[in-house]
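Below is how a single chain appears once it has passed through the pipeline. First comes the sequence as given, then the structure the pipeline wrote out for it. We keep one example in the README because the format questions we get most often are answered faster by looking than by reading.
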Amino acid sequence: METKQYNLTISDHDFKVKGYWLDQVDDFGQDVDYPIVIICPGGGFTFHSQREEEPIALRFNSYGMHAVVLEYQLIGNEPVYPMALEEMSKTIEWITEQAEARHIDKDKIILAGFSAGGNIVATYNGVATNPKLRQKYHLDQYQGQHAAIILGYPVIDMTVKGSFPDDDKVLNQITADKNLWKAQELVSSQSKPAFVWQTQTDELVKVVNTIKYVDRLNDLNVPVEYHLFGSGIHGLAFGTYVTQKPGKKKYLNSWTAKWIELAFNWLQMMKFLG
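Resulting structure:
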């Protein structure tokens, strides 16, 4: 396996991605094109949580998928959106352009997002699959498209009271574009299939976020699988010792740790894996 960091550019803006590339297996006697996942970690749009980067990427590798971690735009001198949408499109195009050289199945590009990164993925799943919105947000200049998404405790509706961001100043730092405040309202029948999970006891992102998104997908007959676990804090990642903060038992949860196996089963059922 090869691990390498890259700098990508859109206009005058640079951002980083990190690739986790699978090697070909000599025993197979032929080359294999692997699916790939683009991972958007959480971090409240103020940092990129490393607990949701390499551990997640390596687990996807273990199931026969290349992985790329996208370090998307954070709150700063510029808002998160619409820059983050272009970063995702550029990353997909970059992957598509090297599909042959890297043995990537460009028809099986999966997006996975956690918490704030889940908002990036959910929003992109609405904007990038709608021709009018794709043009409005300048995504039509990029090639390639994703096939499905995986969301873990995602921020969906940023206007829900008592749920992240729950602060008008922060909300406007993320984006002043009200059209992007509610990812569920961007969903259309053209949006891609989704696997979604959250815990009922999530103290930062209210459960209504995932319920709204899943309901909208279901209403439009977009394939979706939803798992609402009965316990667990926000930001569990795997819920195992691999992503546990040292000495903090609240990051361990053997029930929610099953989400990753369920997600891989779903990918297989949807013919994106195996």
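Helices lie at 54-62, 83-97, 99-102, 116-127, 131-136, 168-174, 208-219, 259-269.

See the next section for the split statistics.
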